[in-house]
User: Fold this.
Amino acid sequence: MPRQLGELEDAVMTRVWQWNRPVTVREVLEDLQQERSIAYTTVMTVMDNLHQKGWVRREVDGRAYRYTAVSTRAAYSAALMNEAWSRSDNPAAALVAFFGMMSAEQREALRDAVRIVAPALSEAPAAESDDGSPADEAPPDSGR
Assistant:
């Protein structure tokens, strides 16, 4: 599970993800300087740290490196959500609470996502309960 990015790491990765191409420290620096005062060496250190952590790969280009994201922002967000959900002692309640926090736009995105994955879910083999019986069937003595 990826560790949540720090504020400056996130600012750098946001650019790498948005641009979706190999980028240099200088390019990221110039874009960051539009919203804050920051030194070249600071951006260089952050990008080196992101490389060491496996967030970006880099290739030598003359005397500099070009950095490329290893995965997408969507994959990063999904991993963070999965980690948070898996830590819950009541995953169903956590989901209900999460859905309650969603904006109308987020709920629509959720509906779209469910429409996309629903066909794959219906083709998946039936889950089994702890006793090995299919999860969607009641045990014979349940009276159902």
